[in-house]
């Protein structure tokens, strides 16, 4: 019996033009037959599969199409993907080893697997084919993409985050980026086993989170900021009320009292937007013990810093930056651009008193993601935010090292937290 199931199969699609054209003809023929019989919208994939196989065989026989060398089982699965799935993307979405899917036009599909990008032998028929798949993804979300709304950022039902941009803004055809949602979040042991940090660093960070230190996780795109935030959240006490704020809900906090908030983009009329800053302000009215901001990237950073300075200790956020020092510059810039009227020294003082630790994560050329630096924020001296490097990754040794001991102030706080 032919296997039409999804899990476990490794699909190798031929890129031959004749096969692509055959799929288009088969798709139109089978959809017409199913609609005539009133079956297409009444059957699940498993029930639809034998009907698709029957109609496909009928078409191939009727049209005398050459089928030598064609795997008809794979062909049926591809047709089912077009009808009830997301076309060429479906096997990639089903592959648990893939983290990101990147479509640069109809014939260039890339995936990130194990931290490395690679092109896969899949393709769309044309740009319209990509658009149909994007619109099928957006339809259940009540979102649309067209010339009037050529950019869409959204979250699928399974938690995966998608960004689509189409012509005229995308010059070479529709582009789609998918950051897949992992149902099973990584644990601290997974980071240790993967060499992302040392046992001493994990012990230190777990104590810091338990002692309600304010953390800023810094790194480039795809470096593993959200993954680390997820792992560190496991050390938050179960009796603490945590409010999370994200553009697309990705965090998977496991403690028992979590309120998840998600921003909302404007509708097609430009109304109804809910920004991260509005949600941070609202979160302060919800009696949180901690606030976890998925990403600081605008004016909301000021409200987050003020929350850290006014009793919401143990709050955490991430920021895009290439180094820990760059992260401080980015935060200072965002506060300045928020419209906050203050001297440069006062802004630095707010940042220095709010943040306790900066954790820098990086992705190495071989695809490994790891913590490269842990810095303590000590305060202001001579108009500069002073930091103390505690841990660092030594590339020449391929290992982590203790650079300096935490300050007496921080050690006292860690000891106090351990005693609670």
Please summarize the sheet with the most strands. 9 strands, mixed
Overall geometry comes to: elongated
Distance between the termini: 63 Å
- Taking all Cα atoms into account, the compactness measure Rg is 25 Å
Percent of residues in helices comes to 25-40%
Name the CATH architecture of the largest domain: 3-Layer(aba) Sandwich
Number of helical regions: 13
In total, the number of domains comes to 2
Strand arrangement within the widest β-sheet reads 9-8-10-11-7-12-13-14-15
Please write the CATH class name of the largest domain.
Answer: Alpha Beta
CATH homology superfamily name of the largest domain: P-loop containing nucleotide triphosphate hydrolases
Beta percentage is 15-25%
Task: Give the strand tally.
Answer: 15
CATH topology of the largest domain: Rossmann fold
Domain Bacterial type II secretion system protein E: 85-359
Organism: Zobellella endophytica
InterPro entries: P-loop_NTPase, T2SS/T4SS_dom, T4SS_GSP_E_ATPase
Protein name: ATPase
In short:
The protein has 420 residues and is of the alpha/beta class. It has helices spanning 17-36, 45-63, 72-84, 90-94, 127-138, 188-193, 199-210, 225-233, 276-283, 300-309, 324-337, 344-354, 408-419, and strands at 98-104, 109-113, 116-119, 151-155, 161-165, 175-179, 215-219, 242-246, 258-262, 290-293, 316-320, 357-363, 369-381, 384-394, 399-402. A hairpin with a 5-residue loop joins strand 4 (151-155) and strand 5.
């Amino acid at each position: 019996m032919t296997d039409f199931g999804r899990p476990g199969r490794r699909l190798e699609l031929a890129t031959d033009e004749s096969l692509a054209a055959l799929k288009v003809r088969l798709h139109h023929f089978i959809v017409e037959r199913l609609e005539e019989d009133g079956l297409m919208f009444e059957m699940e994939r498993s029930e639809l599969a034998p009907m698709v196989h029957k109609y496909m065989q009928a078409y191939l026989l009727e049209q005398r199409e050459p089928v030598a060398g064609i795997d008809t089982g794979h062909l049926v699965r591809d047709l089912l993907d077009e009808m009830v799935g997301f076309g060429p993307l479906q096997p990639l979405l089903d592959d648990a080893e893939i983290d990101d899917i990147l479509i640069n036009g109809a014939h260039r599909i890339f995936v990130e697997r194990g931290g490395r990008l690679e092109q896969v032998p899949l393709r769309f028929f044309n740009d319209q084919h990509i658009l149909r798949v994007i619109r099928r993804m957006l339809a259940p979300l009540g979102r649309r993409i067209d010339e009037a709304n050529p950019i869409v950022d959204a979250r699928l039902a399974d938690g995966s985050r998608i960004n689509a941009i189409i012509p005229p803004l995308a010059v070479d055809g529709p582009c789609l980026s998918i950051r897949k949602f992992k149902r099973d979040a990584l644990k601290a042991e997974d980071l240790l086993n993967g060499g992302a940090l040392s046992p001493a660093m994990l012990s230190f960070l777990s104590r810091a989170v338990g002692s309600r230190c304010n953390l800023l996780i810094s790194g480039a795109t795809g470096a593993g900021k959200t993954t680390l935030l997820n792992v560190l959240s496991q050390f938050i006490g179960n009796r603490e009320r945590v409010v999370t704020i994200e553009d697309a809900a990705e965090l998977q906090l496991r403690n028992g009292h979590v309120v998840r908030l998600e921003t909302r983009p404007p509708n097609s009329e430009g109304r109804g937007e809910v920004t991260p800053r509005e949600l941070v302000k609202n979160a302060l009215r919800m009696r949180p013990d901690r606030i976890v901001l998925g990403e600081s990237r605008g004016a909301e950073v000021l409200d987050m810093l003020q929350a850290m300075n006014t009793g919401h200790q143990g709050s955490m956020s991430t920021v895009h930056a290439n180094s820990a020092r760059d992260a401080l510059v980015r935060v200072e810039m965002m506060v300045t651009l928020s419209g906050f009227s203050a001297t440069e020294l006062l802004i630095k003082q707010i940042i220095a008193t709010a943040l306790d630790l900066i954790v820098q994560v990086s992705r190495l050329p071989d695809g490994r993601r790891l913590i490269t630096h842990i810095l303590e924020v000590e305060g202001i001296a001579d108009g500069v935010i002073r930091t103390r490097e505690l841990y660092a990754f030594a590339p020449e040794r391929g290992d982590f090292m203790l650079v300096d001991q935490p300050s007496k102030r921080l050690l006292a706080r860690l000891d106090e937290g351990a005693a609670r």
